[in-house]
Amino acid sequence: MPMPAATPPIPSALPDSIILWSAGSRLKYDIQERYYGTHYCWCSPAFDSEALAATAVGANMAPSSNPITIYRELAAAIAKNDSHDLRIAGFRASIRGIAMKKAKEGIITLDQAKEIAVMAKTASLSQFKPLMYVIPYNLVSGRVQSVPLKNRANFEPEYTVPDLHKSEFHVIEL
User: Fold this and answer.
1) Domain membership flag for residue 135
2) In total, how many domains does the chain have?
3) Could you list the residue range(s) of the whole structural domain that residue 100 is in?
4) Residue 74 lies in a domain
5) 116-172 pLDDT per residue, tens
6) Taking the C-alpha atoms of 98, 138, 153 and 86 in order, what is their torsion angle to the nearest 10 degrees?
7) Residue 76 lies in a domain
8) pTM to 2 decimals?
């Protein structure tokens, strides 16, 4: 009788050589750069969980958290001119919510938050062009936060970097 697959351990610390990956939209990138001066990224240690060996950390990443899946879904929605795409609708809402939060924190003004809300609501699909963030772990290791298990798509590790500076990552378009 085969043994059941073991749940891989969640590493408490990542090696300095690891790359963190995050997929986002051009609109989010531009807003964060222009208004906030830093970037908030939800990250994975796996670029494409489906390409990993079955026992690798991140190999069982849910599609909703897999950076390449997010990237491809955004690209497909734009290519097919899908104005009802749920991921883009979620990005629109998230951008507006973050702007209001930043206004309450005093990082931006209420007028700027309203401006961002209008941008998010009226942005064309092409403004949600996908971008892939490539983040060398050693540049952000002191600020990487592990996402609590209850907030992850499944048991695989997910991380956030709440204050990513432009000098700490690369953006690529695939």
Assistant:
1) yes
2) 1
3) 19-49+82-172
4) no
5) 999 999 999 999 999 999 999 999 999 999 999 999 999 999 999 999 999 999 999
6) 40
7) no
8) 0.86
